[in-house]
Design brief:
The protein has helices at about 5, 10, 15-25, 40-45, 80-90, 105-115, 125-140, 170, 185, 190-210; strands spanning about 30, 50-55, 95-100, 120, 145-150, 155-160, 220-225, 230-235. It has a single domain (about 5-235), classed as Rossmann fold (3-Layer(aba) Sandwich), CATH 3.40.50.720. It is of the alpha/beta class. About 40% of the residues are buried. The protein is globular, with a radius of gyration of 17 Å. Bound molecules: zinc ion.
Length: about 240
């Protein structure tokens, strides 16, 4: 494969260049959750030339996943999401190293895994997992991209975890919030998941290569019924049990 040609649409970008593409080729990303957001993010990260991707999901594929989890096909029903994701991603880019983990990880196992990658994509669908991943990433100073999608709405959080005074996800969602509930129960429009998954991949790439003017932790909020987009800096909660 001619990488110069393959990634020429990236390297022609004004603020990108071959050096940035080489950075992506040397980078490792952990994707936690291979559902509506993680499966889409994983496709773009693989095709964009991330060198090593690890996908974690213990869940199996069911029929209600198929409209938005477009890596999966009807033949995959009942199979593990991480294993099928690995198989499909290798078809997209045979030069990438793709790892899959098909079991539920303990906090210690998750911490070990996170410590070995450059950045984490949290595409889980429940608050308990999100808070655990946030705490680990904050404590070991690992950049974290979080996504959530429900109905026609989506959130993308970029948590740099580089400065001591950074805010974190726990500052926003320390108690149950309906926007972070499982999307299955509330319904979700399939392309909304696609858009949020793509945004997560884009934030991940920009963070890895340093194309990002805003050094603050941000939350981008999308109302895709009315096409309204808002980005705010995540305020620090002085009573946060993780970052304060
Ligand atoms: Zn916090």
């Amino acid at each position: 494969m001619d990488n110069q040609l393959r990634y020429s649409s990236h390297t022609r970008l004004e603020d990108f260049g071959e050096q940035s593409q080489n950075t992506l080729l040397r980078s490792s990303v952990l994707i936690i959750g291979a559902g509506g957001l993680g499966s889409i993010a994983s496709i773009y990260l693989t095709t964009s030339g991330i060198g090593q991707i690890t996908v974690v999901d213990f869940d199996t594929i069911d029929e209600s996943n198929l409209p938005r989890q477009i890596l999966f096909k009807a033949d995959d029903l009942g199979k593990n999401k991480a294993l099928i994701t690995k198989k499909r991603l290798m078809e997209y880019n045979s030069e990438a190293i793709i790892n899959s983990i098909d079991k539920k990880l303990s906090e210690d196992e998750m911490k070990k895994l996170i410590s070995h990658v450059d950045i984490v994509i949290d595409a889980t669908d429940n608050l308990e997992s999100r808070l655990m991943i946030n705490k680990i990433c904050y404590n070991i100073k690992k950049p974290l991209i979080v996504g959530a999608a429900i109905r026609y709405e989506g959130h993308v959080l970029k948590l740099n975890n580089t400065k001591d005074h950074n805010s974190c996800l726990n500052c926003l969602y320390s108690s149950s919030d309906e926007n972070l509930e499982n999307c299955e129960g509330n319904g979700i429009m399939s392309p909304v998941a696609g858009m949020i998954g793509s945004m997560m991949a884009n934030e991940c790439i920009k963070t890895l290569i340093g194309i990002n003017n805003n050094k603050e932790n941000t939350i981008s909020i999308f109302d895709l019924k009315n096409n309204i987009y808002q980005r705010i800096n995540i305020p620090k909660n002085k009573k946060c049990s993780v970052c304060s």
